[in-house]
Amino acid sequence: MIREELRKLIWKAVNEEVSFERPENPEHGDYSTNIALVLAKKQGKDPRQVAETLVSSLDRRGLDFLGKVEVAGPGFINFFLSRKYFLKVLSSIAKEKEKYGSGKERKRIIVEYSSPNIAKPFGVGHLRSTLIGQALYNLYKFLGYECIGINYPGDWGTPHGKILYQLSEKLLKGKSEKERKEILKSLTPQDLEKLYVGFHEEAQQDPTMEEEARIWFKKLEMKDKEARMIWEHIRRVSMEEFERIYSFLDVHIDYLIGESFFEGKMKEVVEDFKKKGLAHESHGAFIVPFPGEALPPAMLLKTDGATTYFTRDLANMKYRIQRWKPDIIAIETGNEQILHFKQVFSASKLIGYATKEKLVHVFHGLYRTQEGKFSTRKGQTVHLEEVLREAIEKASAIIGQSETARGLSPEEKEKVARAIGIGGMKYNDLIQHPSGDIIFDWAKILNLKGNSAAYIQYTFARCRSILKKAEAMPRNAGDAYEFSKEETEIIRTLNAFPEVARDAAERFSPNLVANFVFDLAQKYNLFYGTHSVLQAETKEAKEFRLFLTQAVAQVIKNSLSLLGIQTPERM
RNA sequence: GUCCCCAUAGCUCAAUGGAUAGAGCGGAACUCUUCUAAAGUUUAGAUCGAGGUUCGACUCCUCGUGGGGACACCA
Fold this sequence. Notes:
- The longest helix has 25 residues, at 225-249.
- With 571 residues, this protein is an alpha/beta fold.
- It has helices spanning 2-14, 35-43, 47-57, 83-96, 124-142, 158-172, 177-185, 189-205, 208-221, 225-249, 266-275, 309-324, 338-351, 384-401, 410-430, 442-445, 453-469, 485-506, 511-530, 539-562; strands at residues 20-21, 31-33, 66-72, 76-81, 108-112, 146-151, 255-256, 280-282, 285-290, 295-301, 328-334, 358-364, 367-368, 438-439.
- Among the domains are: 2-81, Gyrase A, domain 2 (2-Layer Sandwich), CATH 3.30.1360; 158-249, no CATH class.
- The radius of gyration is 28 Å and the shape is globular.
- Strands 7-6-5-11-12 form a 5-stranded parallel beta sheet, sandwiched between helices.
- Helix 11 (266-275) crosses helix 12 (309-324).
- Helix content is 55%, strand content 11%.
- The chain binds one RNA strand of 75 nucleotides through strand 1, helix 2, strand 10, helix 13 and helix 14.
């Protein structure tokens, strides 16, 4: 990557770490650094002077990617890439194809994401973790990391007492053994949702239900056969539902390790903390303080001796680090868990479960309506499939009118409609930085114009269409051709892709990739409107533009695939 | 009460401390005998407030205002 080369170049000259930016304005070069401003400040000199001196001392031997280097403004040093290098970018893409931009990091990362709750519906809220997590997984894999994706569903804890209570009271009571089996076997996710919502409504009138639920969970913890059997059915029904949704969304998570998995592993954690004197008794509970860290203490054991999710997550950390020895652990959840993970990470380091591992909590904001809160109670949940179905329908309608899709079979059209509908849903989420709340807006998700997945997919299809109509692909981009402003802009953008992928991974921000690919598509569409590829003025121009078009299609595909979005050939 | 997240155009979002704060939607006006008009062009429109640090602040610091969340027996 050029950024690294330039860094080395400056390092050789002044022994300083520098950062580069890619200026929006092409007049400011392809890369720019403010190093002279920083140095001038330190040395009390004139920044432009410092910049000039630095530029003249650069050892440019053998660096044929570099064009002119100039000092501008208050003392920026602007680097322009050479024509030769621009052509090389295109041939690299042609050669490396889906590998263009990828890396060879030999590190290992665990990404925990999705993690829905058993017995609750998979709403739009859970979608965020699934999509962001999957995109991060894809990104790190692309950079060469060995990725371990973990789905950590909430399949344990008092909420499950509620559903156990509901099932046994409402559906199973007074039934014969055979009937009970039948009922459990034919249980649907909708049944579970109804029972769960029903519990909260009824518990308002009858507070004793909460106590009953606790008793049921206690039974489950005590390995009561009956409770266990019902729980397993609930778990199965939920997981089947989730799997169905994952496969619909084209999401694949390597491991399914739920909270229940750590049931037997928490005693050990409590012992570890006791042994090292890192936890103490307080008001009958057992807590871990964080001296000097401005964190409130976290609870390891409740007064009744039961564990908490803090205990569970510590067991989880210990297990993961021992089993996989990762370099990075990234956990994707809602932002309401920020404090919790600060505590878990700190405690993991205190106790020594984690040492050199980089622990990252990637948190996302919640879905909201424009008016305010999204009330998940009382059936206000928006069902994922409802949204998707509508998105797909809308795409179908447009495909029906599309001239170029005319030759497609109904099955193919359906496939394209799905790619567009699901892509739109994913893009709507990933275009935004994870941390903020996200407004649930039907119009925006269903939007097929402007900044949307469909716009980018459409641009890809345009490229593919041109390439198919061209009789032959040129071997290289034609040296003789002097490219235009629009074409230069596209190459500059293509060159940025490997760096964007790295920045997005490093900052855990898939939205950088989404922004990038939209920008690329926009630039190609601008080019498309001003230049003809197949009817180009000269042979050289045609060859160059075909080569460029091919490169754009490839990089759009690489980018969207990082986001988990498909690129149909025609639409 | 303490801590955390957020605040940018009418709406939804961008912008590793950099050069003229970018897009999309919506509004107004245009461009299909021309490789896919799901496109393109033109146009109006914004950094919550007050201080501070800096050559330079949407970005960093302090104090406010507004929205959301967490803070011992829910996860």
